[in-house]
Amino acid sequence: MRRKRVLPLAALLLCTPALAGTAPAVAAPQTAPAAEPAAAPAGPLRILLTNDDGYNAPGIRKAFERLIAAGHDVTIVAPLTNQSGTGTKMMSGAPTISVKHPEPKVWAVDGTPGDSVAFGLAEVFAGEAPDLVVSGTNFGPNVAGLATHSGTVGGAVAALESGVPAIALSTGGLSAPDPVTTVNAMGPTLDFAVKLIDRLRVRARSGPLLPKGVGLNVNHPIVGADGKGTAAGVATTFQDPQNFLEPDFTDAGDGTWKVGVKVALKPAAKGGDIEAVAAGKIAVSPMNSDWNTGPADQAVTSALIAGLRP
Question: What is the pLDDT of residue 203?
Answer without folding.
Answer: 85
